Amino acid sequence: MTAALIAEGLVAGYGAAEQILKGASVAVQPGEIVTIIGPNGAGKSTLLKAVAGLLKIAEGRVAVAGRDVTAQDAIGRARAGLAFVPQEANVFARLSVAENLSISGFLDPKGSATELEKIYARYPMLAGKRRALARSLSGGQRQILAMAMGLMQQPTMMLLDEPTAGLSPRAAEELFAAVIDLNRAGLPVLMVEQHAVEALRISHRGYVLVAGRNSVEGAGPALAEDPDIRRLFLGG
Ligand SMILES: Nc1ncnc2c1ncn2[C@@H]1O[C@H](COP(=O)(O)OP(=O)(O)OP(=O)(O)O)[C@@H](O)[C@H]1O
């Protein structure tokens, strides 16, 4: 089986300072939700950025659906199938929902209208608010919009950086339900989450990243219930 994503031995950082990633690796198999947890500053967001091609890596390799994309920039990796939803500033606040979605179809302008209809069918909330400015949406609605913008790229693999950050427990639950829904429709997901227990419970597998390196990995629900993991990384 060809992995949906392989990132191997990534070394990367920001400029002259010490590298943040010191050889981190993750893999996502077709059909999986995989969550990366770990202490603040471990490099979780940095790992997603390095995979998405937004941060140059000094060492390592990235492959999407069996194709090596290490030499590709962010656009090349998007074309190869990766959609990255950043944690912050992930929608254009002053544009409408429809405009946000339309410009996200830039990889395939011809297919964009069809894709847009699929998205409105999947998320009736967005269809109902298509003329609303993105900044008028609730936090949860905005995260759905950001995810839908990723879907406009017709990805084979979704990268989500803390999709529930700043959301109420209820909105976070709805967002996780939307992630499960997408995954059941066949999309593999790699996410970084602060709501680690909830995220691991809905994940097939999880990785613990510590100081830029892999620590523990295992089945998501098992990690969520593991007493040592809970004590060390999940606040008791
Ligand atoms: N743009 C940047 N320029 C310089 N340093 C950065 C930048 N972004 C992140 N860092 C540093 O890289 C380290 C890892 O940050 P990263 O955001 O990847 O951590 P994280 O594991 O996602 O943690 P958190 O849960 O705090 O977001 C931190 O020390 C952070 O200060």
Automatic annotation (TrEMBL):
ABC transporter domain mapped to chain residues: 5-236
PROSITE patterns named in the record: ABC_TRANSPORTER_2
Matching Pfam families: ABC_tran
InterPro entries xref list: AAA+_ATPase, ABC_transporter-like_ATP-bd, BCAA_Transport_ATP-bd_LivF, P-loop_NTPase
UniProt keyword annotations, A-Z: Amino-acid transport, ATP-binding, Nucleotide-binding, Transport
Gene Ontology molecular function: any one: ATP binding
One GO BP: L-amino acid transport
Gene3D superfamilies xref list: P-loop containing nucleotide triphosphate hydrolases (3.40.50.300)
Homology family: Belongs to the ABC transporter superfamily.
Protein name, per record: ABC transporter ATP-binding protein
Species name: Teichococcus deserti
Lineage: Bacteria, Pseudomonadati, Pseudomonadota, Alphaproteobacteria, Acetobacterales
